[in-house]
Write a structure and sequence with these properties.
The protein is α/β, with parallel strands linked by helices. It is built from 13 helices and ten strands. Bound molecules: S-adenosylmethionine (SAM), 6-(5-methyl-2-OXO-imidazolidin-4-yl)-hexanoic acid and iron/sulfur cluster. 6-(5-methyl-2-OXO-imidazolidin-4-yl)-hexanoic acid binds next to strand 7.
Length: 362
């Protein structure tokens, strides 16, 4: 029997005029055809064996005035979360140093705010400057931004701003009532105008239908410029939120969305984001095959668990994946090399004889 090639020619061009029908058609492709196309597009734009690693830190936790139904930090639900004020700068810098030492190239700081207040801005700007001076890329997610706030963050050197659309415009009002889809698009616009890179994605598994999933990707892919980073989160069901008992998502549908995101936004980093604690290694490998090339790295997301750093490095080793190095100036190269060595050592140390353990055991 002769093999059949996927029906449509594989285009790797960057487009901003996707139609709902085209997105649906991609999602409906047989799984192997879809993954083949996504992997082909991926290879045109990226090294297929590199994955970017970012570490998250919650710099202000809980008591958020917004009512996002998925979120453990919303003040509207009782999730038993311990609230925390804005973290001291020294603590943030220490966490950033530790993340860098473990091999992260980007440090993402998140705050449970509707938007940053005037009083908090100077602290946040200082955090950006100090974390950046460690040689890390910086990312923040602080809620809605006005034009002048975006400009202040950009001037402080913030590389990325994360602000998610979360779902389709149609499904949005089922999830959040305290701010609109338009508010979110306005913030993304302000971030772009200020010259920062955009990190924008959404959450799957909130009870949305297939059209909501492709609808979210359509919104992202038809923005005037694609987000440089597209986090695809699988809902982490947290007890006390209205979504604690939502039906599980079919894992293959999650992989399909990663693949469709890769095809529609060929040059963006697609992040296999929250929810990896509930994915086995095989599913994560399928997501990498489908074009995911970024992860959150470190045992905590903002408030919920993420796989252990060692386990991720071990998975990378088994799959032959290397952590992507950030763009850097020559003076930082040596330091970066030392980190790569440390990461490699961490991933392989079980293979070596540990004299201290032997003597402790005897
Ligand atoms: N308060 C800011 C905001 O909403 O823009 C920043 C922090 S907020 C926690 C950042 C993102 O985390 C949300 O937009 C949402 O996409 C994601 N998120 C929050 N809770 C989640 C959950 N339980 N599962 C998956 N993703 C979640
Ligand atoms: C994103 O899209 N996912 C991250 C990050 N951006 C800020 C947050 C995931 C949060 C998961 C729930 C928690 O740990 O609180
Ligand atoms: Fe607040 Fe952000 Fe959570 Fe919404 S997602 S409740 S805005 S912390």
């Amino acid at each position: 029997m002769t093999a059949t090639a996927p029906s449509t020619a594989i285009s790797t061009a960057i487009r901003h005029d996707w139609t709902l029908q085209e997105a649906r058609d991609l999602f409906e492709l047989p799984f192997n055809d879809l993954l083949f196309r996504a992997q082909s597009v991926h290879r045109e734009h990226f090294d297929p064996n590199e994955v970017q690693v970012s570490t998250l830190l919650s710099i202000k936790t809980g008591a958020c005035p917004e009512d996002c139904k998925y979120c453990p930090q919303s003040g509207h639900y009782n999730t038993g979360l311990e609230k925390e004020k804005l973290l001291e700068i020294e603590k943030v810098v220490a966490e950033a140093k530790a993340a860098k030492g473990k091999g992260a190239s980007r440090f993402c700081m998140g705050a449970a705010w509707r938007s940053p207040s005037k009083k908090d801005m100077p602290y946040v700007l200082d955090m950006v400057k100090q974390v950046k001076s460690l040689g890390l890329e910086t990312c923040m997610t602080l809620g809605m931004l006005k034009e002048n706030q975006a400009k202040e963050l950009a001037d402080a050197g913030l590389d990325y701003y994360n602000h998610n659309l979360d779902t389709s415009e149609k499904f949005y009002s089922h999830i959040i009532t305290t701010r609109t889809y338009k508010d979110r698009l306005d913030t993304l616009d302000n971030v772009r105008k200020a010259g920062m890179k955009v990190c924008c994605g959404g959450i799957l598994g909130m009870g949305e239908d297939e059209d909501d999933r492709v609808g979210l990707l359509l919104q992202l892919a038809n923005l005037p410029q694609h987000p440089e980073s597209v986090p695809v989160n699988m809902l982490v069901k947290v007890k006390g939120t209205p979504m604690e008992n939502v039906e599980d998502l079919d894992p293959f549908d999650f992989v399909r969305i990663i693949a469709v995101a890769r095809i529609m936004m060929p040059a963006s980093h697609v992040r296999l984001s929250a929810g990896r604690e509930n994915m086995n290694e095989q599913m994560q490998a399928l997501c990498f095959m489908a074009g995911a090339n970024s992860i959150f790295y470190g045992e905590k997301l903002l408030t919920t668990a993420n796989p252990e750093a060692d386990a991720d490095m071990e998975l990378f080793r088994r799959l032959g994946i290397r952590p992507e190095q950030r763009e850097q100036c020559a003076s930082e190269e040596q330091e970066e090399e030392a980190i790569t060595e440390a990461v490699e050592y961490e991933a392989t140390r079980h293979m070596f004889y540990d004299a201290t353990r032997e003597s402790a055991a005897s």
